[in-house]
From TrEMBL:
InterPro entries to which the protein is assigned, alphabetical: Lipoprotein_NlpA
This protein's name: D-methionine-binding lipoprotein MetQ
Membrane topology: Lipid-anchor
Keyword Membrane on entry: yes
Species of the source: human gut metagenome
One GO location term (cellular component): membrane
Record-linked Pfam families: Lipoprotein_9
Length: 192
């Protein structure tokens, strides 16, 4: 199948007793920092508010993105399980406003910035390329972790048919299609 990232796959295997494995890493849907009342990250000021999703996975990705952009620093090792309690440095005393993910785009007029995952950004009529002030790069910890994969039964990952499918999904024509169709909301994963 082709709808999940590795943490989902691992959880599914654990809960269902299955043995699905990754046959190929194809794309990721980047988180972005989008403007709220401020239109440039250079304008960040002491006490600004930034809205982030409050669920475990999405909050960690949001915090990692804020860290990657020098807004906060997380404790070593916090990684993809980071919470606001893991913020070690916050030089501008930013207030992190934790909201249910669907609510984040609704507060753009109340906070300096919002951090959104791809589907909510699209619903709010944002595009990564045109509107994001910053977004997850393909070499970020989050992109490497949450890349969407081709998952197959263990033992099938090296079958010729699966290899052919992965090759097609990684082909230049599919990369071009993804880039044109999704305009940055879906990004081809170039890592291993």
């Amino acid at each position: 199948n082709y709808f999940q990232h590795v943490p989902y796959l691992e959880q599914f295997n654990e809960e269902k007793g299955t043995h699905l494995v990754v046959a190929g890493k194809i794309h990721y849907e980047p988180f972005g920092i989008y403007p709220g009342t401020k239109k440039d990250l250079k304008d960040i000021a002491k006490g600004d508010k930034i809205a982030v999703p409050n669920d475990t996975t999405n909050e960690a990705r949001a915090l990692l993105l804020l860290q990657d952009n020098g807004i906060i620093k997380l404790k070593d090792g916090a990684g993809i399980k980071a919470t606001v309690n893991d913020i070690e440095e916050n030089p501008n005393n930013i207030e992190i406003v934790e909201l249910e993910a669907a609510q984040v785009p609704r507060v753009v007029n109340e906070v300096a910035y919002v951090v959104l995952n791809g589907n909510y950004a699209l619903e709010a009529n944002y595009t990564v390329k045109k509107d994001a002030l910053a977004y997850e790069k393909s070499d970020s910890e989050a992109a490497k972790t949450y890349v969407n994969v081709i998952a197959v039964k263990e033992g099938n990952e090296n079958s010729e048919k699966i290899k052919a499918l992965v090759d097609v999904l990684k082909s230049d024509s599919i990369k071009k299609f993804i880039n044109e169709k999704y305009d940055g909301a879906v990004i081809v994963y170039d890592g291993e």
